[in-house]
Amino acid sequence: MSPTILLCFLIGYFLLLIIISFVTAKDSSDNNSFFVANRNSKWYLVAFGMIGTALSGVTFISVPGEVGAPAGNQFQYFQFVLGNAVGFLIICTVLLPLYYRMKLTSIYSYIEQRLGHYSYKTAASIFLLSRTLGSATRLYLVVIVLQRFIFDNYGIPFWLTVLISLALIWSYTFKGGLKTIIITDTLQTFFLVLSVFLTIYFICSSLNFNIPQAFETIKSSSYSKIFFLDNFLTNKFYFSKQFIGGIFVTIAMTGLDQDLMQKNLSMGTIKEAQKNMFTFTGVFVILNVFFLSVGALLYIFATKNGIEIPLDHLTGKARTDLLFPEIALNHLGAIPAIIFMLGLTAATFATTDSALTALTTSFCVDFLGMAKAENVNAKDAVKKRHTVHIAFSILMFLVIIVINALNSSSVVSLIFTIASYTYGPLLGLYSFGLFVKKRGLYDKLVPIVCILSPFLCYLLSTYSTRLLGGYVFSVELILINGLITFIGLLFISKKTDAQTEF
After folding, report:
1. What pLDDT does residue 361 have?
2. Would residue 501 count as lying in a domain?
3. Is residue 436, in this structure, part of any structural domain at all?
4. Which residues of 367-379 are buried (b: 16+ CB within 10 A; e: fewer)?
């Protein structure tokens, strides 16, 4: 596939997003529009757009790539997805009613009212760290593909590719914020879903399969095992580890994350927000089945055509993340290549643009106090918001450069490893606030607990085979992290007479 054609396609795609941005933001670009879209978003648009935000380029590339990974992953990821579904239902029935009852702009305002000032700043800081690292890692994945298949051909260095990508995202989000994101994410999710189904069609055509034949081939292949029920101690793919981890990763990375919750808070009523989440959950599960099916078909196609897993330029090791782009861009023809690039770009930028908006919102509300109208002049607030937006774009740029220098593993594994350590304390903080009613905290000690907990988890994970009879942790480590934080908070708590109702 010609790099020039792909580059022209990307330019046209971003011009479309920028036009949408100016149309949606022309009537209002104030902070209320940027933060919560004036609380009049349509639930069906949010539900559909959230699919692209939640899936991202990681699901688009890494999940199919891991199906045939040397570690024998197969369809084990679906165990995690089932846990995700349960986590979404808990968010819908427990957390959303709380956020709506308190009429929050930043969900971390709950921690301020329930636990105190230092707990609040700690929770917001954890989000800023977690989302910056997670979103930078997701964007890093797509930039690798753009670099390898487009920009290397023009001698453009990796750092400049990252800078161009972030500048394009900033260009269509800086004015309209969430109001723009809801529209652009709806469009990008449509492209993502279309790309998945067309990719399956093109691969099946290349293999001379019809849909029933493709289904039977996947079912009878060595890639289709879903449930792993052997070797509980040593198998990180064991069902309970993945399922329980999926539940709590979802609660933390979605329900306690300003990014995806910000979209829910932009709707007028709790019923619309819950309708959005229920719809989103069903579509999310079904789409992941198709992503895993794409993975199986990719490996079947690669085996038939003698295609090896591409090697990382830096480490020389095989990278399953790159198999999908290698086949789509070099072995299926021009139209499938464009369809693939469309889906990848839509998936990744739908996640990153939403994250930049959420990071800006959280910092402005949680650290600059912009939700309190009496604190700032409206024009000054907009200027400050623009400055914060630029600052987070620069920060994400720096993080991607560091990740590129350090990382050689699958990006999907890296993201959930980061989440296990950074989001765990949020689980502990919210659990304490929700379930421990008649105890208050020595608030100034909370940051210490939230720093120690991930450190203790790291030690436990590193030495678990010695300490726990050979046990190997997977994504369920986030639950242990939250539990350690919760116990630590109990140690620094005191009995109170008043019971705060939230």
Report:
1. 79
2. no
3. no
4. eeebbeeeebeee
Burial class of residue 471 (count of CB atoms within 10 Å of its CB; 0-12, 13-18, 19+): middle
The reply to whether 301 falls in a domain is yes
- Asked whether residue 135 is domain-assigned, the answer is yes
Domain ranges, residue 187: 3-416
CATH code, domain carrying 80: 1.20.1730.10
Residue 379 structure tokens = 């024009």
Alpha helices in 314-442 (DSSP H): 323-330, 334-366, 378-406, 411-422, 424-435
Report the residue count for the chain.
502
The structure's pTM equals: 0.82
419: closest CA among 95, 138, 69?
138
Per the structure, the count of domains in the chain is 1
Q: What is the C-alpha to C-alpha distance for residues 227 and 224, in angstroms, rounded to an integer?
A: 10
CA dihedral in degrees (289, 294, 295, 298; nearest 10)?
Answer: 160
211, 227, 348: which is closest to 293 by C-alpha? 211
Chunked into runs of 10 residues, the chain (502 residues) has average pLDDT values of 78 79 64 54 68 68 80 84 93 89 83 89 88 81 80 88 85 66 74 83 88 87 87 88 90 82 78 85 88 89 87 71 84 82 74 76 80 60 81 89 69 66 89 86 91 91 87 87 94 75 54
